[in-house]
Amino acid sequence: MDNSKRTVVVTGFEPFGEHTINASWVAVQELKKLGLGKDIDLHVYEVPVEYQAVQSLVPSLWNQYHPQLVVHVGVSGMATTVTLEKCGRNHGYKGLDNSRFCPHSQCCIEGGPDCIDSVIDMESVCKRVTASGLGVAVSVSKDAGRYLCDFTYYTSLYLSRGRSAFVHVPPIGKPYNEVDLGRALQAIVQEMLDLLDQAEGKIHCQHVH
Fold first, then answer.
1. Looking at 30, 126, 149, 191, which residue is catalytic?
2. Of 30, 85, 178, 191, which residue is the catalytic one?
3. Which long-range contacts (CB under 8 A, 24 or more apart) does 54-60 make?
4. Over the stretch 120-153, which tens digit does the pLDDT of each residue have?
5. Could you name the CATH architecture of 6-208?
6. I want to staple 139 with a disulfide (CB 3.0 to 4.6 A). Which of 12, 81, 150, 198 is the partner?
């Protein structure tokens, strides 16, 4: 195995409700075609819209790949921009999933903090991607919606101590096509990796002195 390569895992979701084609998984497959450059080993997964599946899948991705970063992508019928989520929330999961289940506790991790922020500065990612002239509008949000998206994000943030990200995409054609969304994801993930590198560079510098 080439140790100079870094691993990134990106997930999308299966269809649910009125989203008979889930734009998140379409966008992630498009990203896989584009890749993240030769130094990044990119793995993509389609996540079931089921709380119990998420509870087993997310830890297994971290354990199997020890990724530098995990980015979860979901669809939002209300979104008109590609939206970077700053944090995941632990409580308030009342919506039934694709197997008609919701957690009895209505929370992700019993005893976990109410809210966990990503270590990635989403405002910074948003500014950089916007400035790159991609032609896809990007915004930042503090509420991932208390359904499987938020549930997955919180679980991942908890396991990774914040080294996760979540991106909401609008449905296909409202207004962006799959190629636009794939390009947007590529730009976003590359900026996230750059920011992580800078943060780690600063940590190493502090150790040296």
1. 149
2. 85
3. 54/148, 54/151, 54/152, 54/155, 55/155, 58/152, 58/155, 58/156, 58/159, 59/155, 59/159
4. 999 999 999 999 999 999 999 999 999 999 999 9
5. 3-Layer(aba) Sandwich (3.40)
6. 81
